[in-house]
C-alpha cells in the first residue's frame, strides 16, 4: 500500500508538471517570458517557504544549517542552482512561443538522457545502454523537429538547449544534495531565479498590473501547483517509492504535456511528430531502466 500511495502521488506530480506547459504557453498571451518566469519563481519560493514547516515534520533528512559556514554553503548552492534553473526556464519559456506544448514536453525530457552523458565529463561512470538511449532519442528528435527541408525550428532549438541546461541543473543539485537540505535549497533557487529575471523583465517587457491580473491563473498554477505543490508531491512520493518506478512515472510528464496541449490549447501533433514523441519517450524509459541496473 505504501508503494501504491507513493506511485499515485508521483503520478499526480507528473500530471501537474505536464499540464504546466499549457499554463506557461497560455500565460504568455498576456505577459512575456521574463515576466512569467520572474513572478512564477517568487510565488514558488513563497509557497515552498509556507510549506516548509509541514515538509520538515514529515521528512527524516532535514538539514537545517547550524552555523555561518553551513549557511554560506547553502547560499552558494542555491545561487548556482538558481542560475541554471533560470537559464533553463527562460530557454523553455521562450521556446514555447514557437513550439507546441506537447513537443516542448518531449524535448525537455531529453535531460534524463543528457544527465549521465554529461556526467561522463566529470568522471561519472555509465552504462552502454545510455548511449543506445541517446541514439534512439536522436532518432525521435529527428522525426519530432527536423522538417522536410532538413532545418530545425527556432523553438525546437531553444528547447534542446533548455534540456541541456536542465541536465546541468540536476548535476549541480546532485553535487550539493548530500550536504544541504533539499527544500531550503529549492526555496533559495527560486528566489535567485526570480531576482535574475527581474531586471530583464522591467527593461524589456514593462509588465502592467492589468496584464499580470489577466495572466493570474496560469502564473499561479505554475508557481503554486507546478513548483510548490509539485516539488512537495515529489518529496512525499519518492520517500517510499522504488527509484526506477519513480523515474518512469515522473517521465509521464512529457505525455501529460501533449494531452494538456490537446485538451486546453487544442494543439495537435502530426503523425511524424507523434512517432518522434513515442521514440523519445521510449529512450527516456530505457535510460531509466539503466538507473535500475546501477542501483541493483
| Number of helical stretches of at least 4 residues | 13
Helical amount: over 70%
How much strand? Answer: under 5%
- Tell me about the largest β-sheet: none
Say what oligomer this is: single chain
Query: Which structural class best describes the helix and strand composition?
Result: mainly alpha
**Average pLDDT taken over every residue:** 86
The succession of helices and strands, N to C, reads: HHHHHHHHHHHHH
Shape label: globular
Structural description of this entry:
- By secondary structure, the protein is mainly α.
- It contains 13 helices and no strands.
- Helix 4 packs antiparallel against helix 12 (253-263), helix 4 (101-108) packs parallel to helix 13 and helix 6 (128-145) packs antiparallel against helix 13.
- The model has no long low-confidence stretch (mean pLDDT 86).
Task: Set out the fold topology.
Elements: H1 2-27, H2 33-58, H3 68-95, H4 101-108, H5 111-119, H6 128-145, H7 154-176, H8 182-205, H9 209-214, H10 216-239, H11 243-250, H12 253-263, H13 271-295
Helix pairs in contact: 1-4, 1-10, 1-11, 1-12, 2-3, 2-8, 2-10, 3-7, 3-8, 4-7, 4-12, 4-13, 5-6, 5-7, 6-13, 11-13
Features:
single chain, 296 residues, mainly alpha, 13 helices, 80% helix, globular
Sum this structure up briefly.
The chain is mainly α.
Amino acid at each position: 500500500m505504501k508503494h501504491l500511495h507513493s506511485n499515485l502521488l508521483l503520478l499526480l506530480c507528473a500530471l501537474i508538471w505536464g499540464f504546466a506547459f499549457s499554463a506557461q504557453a497560455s500565460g504568455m498571451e498576456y505577459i512575456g517570458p521574463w515576466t512569467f518566469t520572474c513572478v512564477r519563481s517568487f510565488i514558488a519560493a513563497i509557497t515552498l517557504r509556507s510549506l516548509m514547516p509541514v515538509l520538515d515534520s514529515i521528512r527524516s533528512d532535514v538539514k537545517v544549517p547550524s552555523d555561518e559556514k553551513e549557511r554560506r554553503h547553502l547560499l552558494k548552492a542555491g545561487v548556482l542552482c538558481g542560475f541554471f534553473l533560470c537559464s533553463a526556464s527562460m530557454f523553455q519559456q521562450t521556446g514555447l512561443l514557437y513550439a507546441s506544448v506537447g513537443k516542448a514536453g518531449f524535448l525537455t525530457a531529453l535531460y534524463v538522457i543528457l544527465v549521465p552523458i554529461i556526467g561522463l565529463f566529470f568522471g561519472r561512470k555509465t552504462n552502454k545502454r545510455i548511449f543506445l538511449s541517446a541514439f534512439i532519442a536522436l532518432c525521435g528528435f529527428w522525426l519530432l523537429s527536423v522538417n522536410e527541408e532538413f532545418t530545425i525550428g527556432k523553438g525546437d532549438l531553444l528547447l534542446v538547449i533548455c534540456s541541456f541546461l536542465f541536465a546541468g541543473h540536476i548535476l549541480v543539485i546532485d553535487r550539493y544534495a548530500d550536504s544541504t537540505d533539499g527544500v531550503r535549497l529549492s526555496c533559495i533557487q527560486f528566489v535567485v531565479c526570480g531576482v535574475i529575471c527581474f531586471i530583464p523583465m522591467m527593461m524589456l517587457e514593462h509588465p502592467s498590473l492589468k496584464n499580470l491580473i489577466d495572466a493570474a491563473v496560469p502564473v499561479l498554477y505554475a508557481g503554486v501547483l507546478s513548483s510548490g505543490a509539485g516539488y512537495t508531491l515529489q518529496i512525499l512520493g519518492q520517500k517510499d517509492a522504488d527509484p526506477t518506478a519513480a523515474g518512469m512515472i515522473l517521465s509521464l510528464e512529457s505525455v501529460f504535456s501533449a494531452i494538456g496541449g490537446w485538451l486546453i490549447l487544442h494543439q495537435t501533433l502530426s503523425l511524424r511528430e507523434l512517432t518522434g514523441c513515442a521514440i523519445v519517450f521510449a529512450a527516456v524509459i530505457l535510460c531509466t531502466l539503466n538507473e535500475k541496473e546501477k542501483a541493483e
